[in-house]
Amino acid sequence: AVLRRPLRLPAAAAPRVRDVVGFEIDRQTPFEQAQVHYDVREGEPLADGQLQVELVVIPRQAMEQWLQQSGSWAGLLAGVDADDGNGQPLGVNLLPASQRHVARDPMRRWNLLLGCATVLLLALAGTQLLANRENAADQLRDQVNAAARDARAVAAERQQLQQLVDGAAFLEEKRSAQPSTLEVWNELTRLLPDGTYLEKLSVEGRTLQLIGLSREASQLVPLLQASPLWTKVNLTGVLQADGGAGGRDRFTLTAELQPLPGATPAPPAATPATEVADGNAADAP
């Protein structure tokens, strides 16, 4: 049998209603709090805001006797309720919290294992995803470096081609600026009289120098002056007799070479556009 007492409490007692009701046991019942097991049945709040509760107590001795009569079932009980007199439970738990049996979920261990496996699989998937992204970044970096190397090779070949073009243009300009050595030689062969021998023929820049022997050394200047390939023909120094039986004089002549008739100097080479190819990858993703 249990003892029931209806109580009214202020609304401020709502957070600690069970503790507040516990202090009322010795006033509402013939027992002290240490002599009973109790629980609180909460009802609907009243219109004035007060709490309507019901104190339900059972003597400890009666509870212990009932548990002893239950035998081995006593250790498996999660709670003890009381009858409201109409065959319906009151909805309270008079069994002390220390004696309540906590039913374990049989699937709890499997659920824990599944949870751990799920976390492990997610970690492995994240690691694999990170590794895939790093591999993709490495492949992209290799492609960029290969493209940069190709670009540098193309730029180097273009630079070499431009240098060849510039060299050809320079040679063409030089060729147009003055007659070639072969042309000078042919012109000298045509103009120099018989009995004239050359010991040295040199071209330094636009200066032509002739050293040789001739029976008509004094007539060489007007003979050579008639050529369109050079101007300013002059004897350098004095004529020196060879002293041989041929009657030749040693001479030294200089002249200034002129551009070929009708020759047009080559246009200056165009400055190549600067191309830059950089293959540094640290600066993916």
Strand count, sense and barrel status of the largest sheet are:
5 strands, antiparallel
Helicity level: 25-40%
- Provide the succession of SSEs: EHHEEHHHEEHEEE
Number of H- or I-type helical stretches = 6
Please provide a written account of the structure.
- This protein has 285 residues and is of the alpha+beta class.
- It folds into three domains: 3-99, no CATH class; 104-175; 181-257, Gyrase A, domain 2 (2-Layer Sandwich).
- The protein has six helices and eight strands.
Give the tags.
285 residues, alpha+beta, Gyrase A, domain 2, 3 domains
Summarize the model shown.
With about 280 residues, the chain is α+β, with helices and mostly antiparallel strands. It has 6 helices and 8 strands. Strands 4, 5, 6, 7 and 8 form a 5-stranded antiparallel β-sheet that branches.
